[in-house]
Every structure is written in C-alpha cells, then in structure tokens.
Amino acid sequence: MGSVNFITHADVLQLIAKRTA
Known about the structure:
Layout: H1 9-20
C-alpha cells in the first residue's frame, strides 16, 4: 500500500517478541 506498510506481520511479531522478552 504505502512505504509505511513495508513492514510485514512477521517483523511485527518479532518486535513484540523482543519487547516482551
């Protein structure tokens, strides 16, 4: 869609996993 949506849901899950870790 836009340059902001270049992040995939997998990357988001990784960020959440790192933040919760």
